[in-house]
Write a structure and sequence with these properties.
This protein has a single domain, classed as Four Helix Bundle (Hemerythrin (Met), subunit A) (Up-down Bundle). Helices cover about 55% and strands about 5% of the residues. The chain contains 8 helices and 2 strands; from the N terminus they run αααααααββα. Strand 1 and strand 2 form a beta hairpin. The chain is globular.
């Protein structure tokens, strides 16, 4: 069972991301190809959920590889109180999603024509590649710089790099939970609760 606790430091975040990318891969790899590509109307299939996660990771990786001075010029200085993973999760679920926020534009998944096990394997390989790319991109970031630079989020506004990584960690599990509900499986919980937000 995956237990990621309450990661905060860069070292903890990197370890949590590595464990989570493996857990997500294993979860989707265990789904039969016929189920992987199937879903009721207006509901994302397991394949579409995973493609969405791949698309969501791509701009984070790209941003982490941009020179930090360019991020400062483009997005400004950090002026808000820093948030924990639990706080980012709470805002995403109880403010953004509860207010009708949805994925759009480049984050919408497209999976069509090929519903084979081989295609499932290719999607899973792309997911693993994104995990490796994210790990490599974080090598040039320190704990201090994670809190010193901002990145934009389409639903949550400007967030520190650390907060974007918190969002990424929760967002991955959120979509695993979506697929678990679709497949009538118990939902997993990978993170420690924050009593202050109960």
């Amino acid at each position: 069972m995956t237990q990621l606790g309450n990661p905060y430091t860069k070292q903890e975040i990197v370890a949590a991301l590595a464990a989570e990318f493996t857990a997500v891969h294993n979860f989707f790899a265990d789904i039969e190809a016929t189920q992987f590509f199937a879903a009721p109307a207006e509901v994302w299939s397991p394949a579409e959920n995973l493609v969405h996660l791949i698309k969501s990771c791509a701009p984070v990786i790209m941003a982490l590889n941009i020179p930090k001075t360019a991020l400062r010029i483009r997005f400004g200085w950090v002026k808000h109180e820093l948030r924990t993973l639990a706080q980012v999760r709470h805002t995403y679920v109880n403010v953004a999603l509860a207010g009708g926020g949805k994925a759009g534009g480049p984050f919408l998944p497209e999976v069509k024509d090929d519903f084979s096990a081989a295609h499932q394997t290719r999607i899973l390989a792309k997911w693993q590649a994104k995990g490796a790319d994210l790990h490599a991109a974080l090598e040039n970031w320190s704990d201090k710089t994670l809190d010193s630079y901002l990145l934009p989020h389409p639903l949550l506004g400007k967030m520190t790099v650390r907060e974007i990584l918190f969002f990424t960690l929760y967002h991955n599990m959120h979509h695993v939970n979506d697929v678990q509900r679709l497949l009538n499986q118990p939902e997993t919980e990978w993170f420690a609760a924050d009593p202050a937000l109960a």
